[in-house]
Design a protein that fits this description.
about 400 residues; alpha/beta; Rossmann fold; Ubiquitin-like (UB roll); 5-stranded mixed sheet
């Protein structure tokens, strides 16, 4: 799974990425600070299964804090996109192409309107972030349309001449964008496209097809950054009414980054996504640090319940994508061969079955699947068993 972080320059996109991953990303108050895409590992937070068994887990990857399991996911921060990117403006199509493999997009906007359409700093409230949501939709749709239109005449004629199924041919052509045959089939039915005469499809029909496929393959939510600036809250409420199809989550990337760096330095104890922190040694803080932490506590945590950054990532994966966390374990033994308790946690699509999980663990487990066991209930289930979020499952396979 790949989570793409997108948005125009100078809205705090790279700060959001660094706050999520603590990866080294260039952060600067000018457009196009990010040239090459930054790649890093973020962590989705779920209630750990260990507390249900009265044990303390020992994760192989990720970590666990106060009963919260942080499961790693790959994240990608691409260069800022500006209006006309699909035509080569700003950093152009190159960075749209960086998003091909993304499964879900987090669109970071400046909710306070302190950044204009070019990514330049302006007074708070002088730019309407509504335009950012609109322009990014247009850029992504036009990007998909451009891919569809490229060589369309030749492509559509070949499909007819060789008597191929148009939905299969299109899915193959767009597989790099995670487009499936079923997606194309449903979109064609919805648009009433003539599958026998694709050469006659109009540009408007192709555009409509591009919009549907983009929406299906690049679902998105909006991270409303700079929420600590007073006008931001009012803007977020307007955005929710204007775009009811999206989730708008308030956040302060700078605050999250400051808390995580303070925790890493041993100054505070902080569990990402929570509404408080504990100062471990007040004497180790200088005046600037004390004021900064107090500002975050008063203006962000007490008001919103968290900095919002962890909630954005959790929502993107668990709600927008509909993934769930599954723990491998044994009915009689929760430890692996090295004594680690519930060492692994996997994020799987919400439609996954016991057989899907077996294949996720190892191809041989899938091929030689006998049954699965719900470790909590000790109940034996078959390959079609529909997994549930936070299930602990043992796979029984032959040799």
């Amino acid at each position: 799974m790949l989570v793409g972080v997108v948005g125009k320059p100078n809205v705090g996109k790279s700060t959001f990425f660094k706050a999520s991953t603590l990866a080294e990303a260039e952060i600067a108050n000018y457009p196009f600070a990010t040239i090459k895409p930054n790649s890093g590992v973020g962590f989705v937070k779920v209630d750990c299964a260990d507390k249900d068994f009265g044990r303390q887990c020992t994760p192989r990857t990720g970590y666990c804090l106060q009963g919260k399991r942080f499961v790693p996911v790959q994240m990608l921060d691409v260069a800022g996109l500006v209006p006309g990117a699909h035509e080569g403006r700003g950093m152009g199509n190159q960075f749209l192409d960086d998003l091909r493999q993304a499964d879900v997009l987090i669109h970071v906007i400046d909710a306070a309107g302190t950044t204009n359409e070019k990514g330049e700093s302006v007074p708070a409230g002088s730019y309407d972030p509504l335009y950012d949501v609109e322009f990014l939709e247009v850029e992504l749709d036009m990007w998909y349309l451009g891919i569809l239109q490229k060589g369309w005449d030749k492509f559509s004629r070949t499909v007819v001449q060789e008597k191929k199924e148009i939905h299969s041919a299109l899915a193959k052509q767009l597989s790099g964008l995670h487009v499936t045959e079923e997606m194309v089939e449903l979109a064609m039915e919805y648009l009433h496209l003539d599958r026998e005469k694709p050469i006659q499809w109009t540009e408007e029909q192709l555009h409509q097809l591009a919009v549907i496929l983009r929406t299906k393959t690049k679902p998105m939510l909006i991270a409303c950054n700079k929420i600590d600036i007073p006008i931001a809250e009012e803007n977020v409420e307007r955005l929710k009414k204007r775009f009811p199809k999206y989730q708008f989550l308030p956040c302060s990337a700078e605050s999250e980054l400051a808390l995580k760096e303070a925790a890493r330095a041993g100054l505070i104890e902080y569990v990402p996504g929570t509404g408080d922190f504990t100062i471990l040694d007040a004497s180790a803080l200088n005046e600037r640090q004390r004021k900064g932490l107090q500002f975050i506590k008063t203006n962000i945590l007490d008001k919103y319940g968290s900095t919002g950054v962890q909630q954005v990532l959790d929502t993107a994966v668990l709600q927008v994508l509909g993934y769930m966390a599954i723990f491998p374990g044994g009915v009689n033994k929760l430890e692996d061969s090295e004594g680690r308790v519930l060492p692994d946690c996997f994020l799987l699509p919400g439609t996954s079955t016991a057989l899907d999980f077996a294949y996720k663990l190892h191809t041989d487990f899938g091929k030689n699947f006998i049954c699965a066991k719900d470790v909590r209930t000790k109940k034996t289930v078959g390959k079609e068993y529909q997994l549930k979020h936070r299930d602990v499952v043992e796979i029984v396979a032959g040799k």
